[in-house]
């Protein structure tokens, strides 16, 4: 049996989670008191961008965050190991750090650009907050009756005041998979990616299919590679906030090697050897580089490349 060398708890964005303490979400009195605690920790976001220090970590504020955005509804993220309540606040678009009480603390930074430098717990919390704030922006209106819904349960639910429907955040399952054939694996690239970057293929799971079936379907649709879904090997998964997805890593043995790409999905696809994959991961390949280490695709490729033949 193949031994997997890592697991989901060690994958970036999923590692070092705090206690979500969901039982507090429906307790307004507890939440109000927790937000005012002197030891409360509050991270700020603006349009999906976290407030980050020059050194690369999140800017952590305390109860003074309420003075910066008195009308904002804080999102309760949970309790850290010391029992400290952790919140996130979405700042309005016109908020200017340098014209505020926290001038000089940091700047709102593109999430992908700062991910490589964020500490593990910071990355997990910022990723969670980004997913939830994006969900609220995209789901202001009730999907059942069209009325404007309202936030509830510390940001983890929306209630419709008209038809009484309850709406909860959704996570879209995405298969991200490596097709392998003997000592080779299949990589692809999209036109929008930086020159030289290649990665695993990926696609959303559709209603009525299993994770393994979706992975096999996507490989055939995008690259013409046939795989037996029953032989898929699950590796690990990663929460991914672009938008709110769960990236589920798999390896599938290929039944053919002839590539026929869907040009709407891929620019190119090719087979590389295990030795080439190791050089790619080491940054020693002259033409190819792998996704950054914060992406689960990097870890899928590494999992296969470091196995014995």
CATH structural architecture of the largest domain: Alpha-Beta Complex
CATH superfamily of the largest domain: Nucleoside Triphosphate Pyrophosphohydrolase
**Which structural class fits the helix and strand makeup?**
alpha+beta
Task: Write the CATH fold name of the largest domain.
Answer: Nucleoside Triphosphate Pyrophosphohydrolase
- The number of helical segments is 7
> What general outline do the C-alpha atoms trace?
globular
Q: Can you describe this structure?
A:
The chain is α+β, with helices and mostly antiparallel strands and 309 residues long. The chain has two domains: 10-138, no CATH class; 171-305, Nucleoside Triphosphate Pyrophosphohydrolase. Helix content is 22%, strand content 25%. The chain has seven helices and 14 strands. Strands 9, 10, 11, 12, 13 and 14 form a six-stranded mixed sheet that branches. The protein has a five-stranded mixed sheet with strand order 3-4-1-2-5, with helices on both faces. A hairpin with a 6-residue loop joins strand 7 (157-159) and strand 8 (166-167). Helix 6 packs across helix 7. The mean pLDDT is 95.
What are the SSEs and their pairings?
Blueprint: H1 28-36, E1 41-46, E2 49-52, H2 65-68, E3 75-79, E4 85-90, E5 107-108, H3 111-115, H4 120-138, E6 150-152, E7 157-159, E8 166-167, E9 172-181, E10 184-189, E11 201-204, H5 211-223, E12 233-241, E13 244-253, E14 268-273, H6 274-281, H7 296-305
Parallel strand pairs: 1-4, 9-13
Antiparallel strand pairs: 1-2, 2-5, 3-4, 6-7, 7-8, 9-10, 9-11, 10-14, 12-13
Helix pairs in contact: 6-7
């Amino acid at each position: 049996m193949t031994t997997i060398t890592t697991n989901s708890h060690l994958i970036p964005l999923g590692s070092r989670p705090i206690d979500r303490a969901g039982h507090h979400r429906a307790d307004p009195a507890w939440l109000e008191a927790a937000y005012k605690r002197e030891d409360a920790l509050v991270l700020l976001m603006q349009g999906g961008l976290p407030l980050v220090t020059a050194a690369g970590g999140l800017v952590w504020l305390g109860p003074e965050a309420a003075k910066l955005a008195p009308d904002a509804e804080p999102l309760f993220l949970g309790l850290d190991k010391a029992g400290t309540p952790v919140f996130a606040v979405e700042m309005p678009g016109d908020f200017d750090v340098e014209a505020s009480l926290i001038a000089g603390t940091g700047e709102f930074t593109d999430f992908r650009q700062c991910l490589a430098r964020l500490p593990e717990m910071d990355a997990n919390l910022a990723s969670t907050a980004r997913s939830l704030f994006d969900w609220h922006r995209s789901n202001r209106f009730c999907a059942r009756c069209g009325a404007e819904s309202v936030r509830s349960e510390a940001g983890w639910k929306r209630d419709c005041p008209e038809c009484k429907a309850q709406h909860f955040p959704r996570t879209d399952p995405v298969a991200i998979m490596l097709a392998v054939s003997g000592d080779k694996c299949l990589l692809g690239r999209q036109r929008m990616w930086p020159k030289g970057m290649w990665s695993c293929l990926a696609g959303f799971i559709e209603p009525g299919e299993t994770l393994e079936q979706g992975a096999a379907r996507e490989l055939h649709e995008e690259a013409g590679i046939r795989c037996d879904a029953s032989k898929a090997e699950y590796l690990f998964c990663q929460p991914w906030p672009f938008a709110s997805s769960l990236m589920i890593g798999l390896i599938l043995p290929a039944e053919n090697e002839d590539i026929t790409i869907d040009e709407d999905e891929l620019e190119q696809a090719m087979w590389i050897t295990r030795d080439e994959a190791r050089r790619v991961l080491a940054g020693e390949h002259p033409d190819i580089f792998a996704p950054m280490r914060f992406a689960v695709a990097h870890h899928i490729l590494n999992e296969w490349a470091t196995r014995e033949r």
